[in-house]
Amino acid sequence: MSSSIPSVAAGPTPLMPLPQSRGAKAAREFEATLVSSLAESMEKTFANLPGEDQVPGSDNYNYLGTHALGEAIASRGGFGIAKFVSEHLPLHEGKG
Q: What is the pTM of this model?
């Protein structure tokens, strides 16, 4: 009796970016900027302890980190803002 089940399970496939319209790309970039702004605000509120000296250059490093986080969150669906905008944008462009 032979089994048709492979002996090695396939691993997850890497995320491949799908082609996007200009509107969908703009909506995703808008969401990424919004998420980055939120993350930056939270980071500034909670990251530093009172009386703690700030390391030179940490603002730039924190900026890069929060924007990378925002891009990553938005590229994986984010809060759904980009999807919502992308679905409703054609209606306002006369294509829906």
A: 0.64
